[in-house]
Structures are given as C-alpha cells and as structure tokens.
Amino acid sequence: MVETTYPRQRAKLRSVGGSIFCAALAALCLAAPAAGAQDLPASRADDGRGVGILVLNEHGVGNASLAQPYLDQMVAIATAQNNWGAARGQYFTSRSAAEAFIRSQAPHYGILSLAAFLAMRENYHLEVIGTVEVSLLGGQQYHVISRDAANLDACRGRTLATNHADDLRFVNRVVLGGGFKLSDFTLVETQRPLLTIKKLLTGEAQCALVDDAQLAELPHIEGAEGVRSIWDSQKLPPMVVVAFLAAPPAEREAFRKNLPHVCDGDGRSVCAAVGLISLKPATGSPYAAVVAAYGP
User: Fold this and answer.
1) What is this structure's pTM?
2) Which residue among 183, 201, 232 closes a domain?
3) Does 1 map to a domain?
C-alpha cells in the first residue's frame, strides 16, 4: 500500500486552512466597505433574511464549520459597515447543496468555482461582478500525469484515474478543449484528490487527470518519483464573484466597486493568513472564452 509522507498534523492543518480560506473569503466579501453606504437604504430580502452570500468551492477540502465562529464575527462587522440590516454566509463543496440553498434562501452574491459558474450562469441569471485571486492552488490548470506514458497519445485507450469526472461537459469542452474526451480512456473515477494519485502509483491506472494543486503535491508523496505531467491544459480563469437577481442594482454596483478594499486596512492580515491575494471588480469579459467553450 502506498503511503503519503504527510504528517497527520500537516494534513489536518492543510484541510483546516482550506476551510478557513473559503469561509473567510465569504466573510471578507461581506465586510467590504460600500461607497456611500450611509446614503443607501438598509438592504434586506423581502422575507427579512437579509443579504446572503454563498461560497461554492467544488472539490474543496475541510469542514467549514471549523471557521464558523470567525465567519459569524465577520458577518456582524459587515452588517454594520454596509447597512445591510442583516447578513449571512454559507460555504459549500456540493453543487446540489448550494442550489438547494439558492432556491430556499435567495442569496444576493456568490463566489463560485469555475465549473459551477458555467453550469449555473443561465438558470440563475448570474452577473459577473468580480474575480478572486488566491495564493492557494486548485482548479486553474489541469494536467495528465503518468510515470510510463511518454505523451497523451500513449494514454488513449488505457486506464485514466481522476476525481474531476463529475462534470463531463466542463472537463471535455473547457479543460480538455475539445481536443480529446474522457471517453477516449478507460475511466477510473475517484472521490478524493490523493486517491487519484494513489491509483496511479499502485498501477490501477496508467495515467491520471489532476489539477494544479494535486500536481504540486507530487513531491510530497512517497513513491511518486518519476511521475510527471505529459499534458497541460490552458490556464483557466479564477473563481468568480457573481450577483444573483436578488441583489438590487445599486447595492451590487457599490459592492463591485469596493471589492479591492476587502484586503485593505484590517483585512490585509486576514487576507494573507487565508491565502487571499485580492478581489477585483470585473465584468464577464475574463470568462468569455470559457463561456463560449462550455456552450449554452
């Protein structure tokens, strides 16, 4: 059996860090100072639930409840700073759970992984208002790795392990760019990032489709010597900040303009601690190419 070289403590901290990043990201966005907030009426959903924001980080790690007390404090600050009257944040790694939240809670804003944004953009009439720049790797580039195969053609028809096959349309059209499809391989699906690599190391798969975070872990995994990338995808846009229909136009425009202030002042050290570099206002243009590739 192949064992990783992760000490338990390091693995636990890495997992907790992922959770804190996502939960803190939601809280920091809620805490962005809105220009002219004193001139805006308190922003509440019609049923009094207030301004909601969800973070959907598919393939994310850890348990967001570990960061919930921190998130609650940041949401309280946001309520005061933005005159929202009430606010709430929720973190998901499951698209189905996030969609249930959207239907029941009518959030104003979301921070979504790219595949989720592409799949949900039309059903929920999402408007891009910003991009997320993080120092943590994951989901911005994909790689086919192997120890024995010399190139991608050598993997065709052979076993390929991956934990990224849950959205075939995204993988085939956007990640793989239409040049080849997962159906060109004998697929070995996994549920966890490290298990994908273990399938390769134990010989259960000759190749594996991984993302940039998994590739970066290879030097830390026992027995992974000689495993290398034999194909690299194009770099993809980062996680996206979106507005839902529930967000009033004036509120969403103020929020968009003030995204850069999230990591200013008191937020700077918090951003650094959770691996957040910046939030930037944006329109849909950084995502136009992947939207076109994904299709209607």
Assistant:
1) 0.81
2) 232
3) no
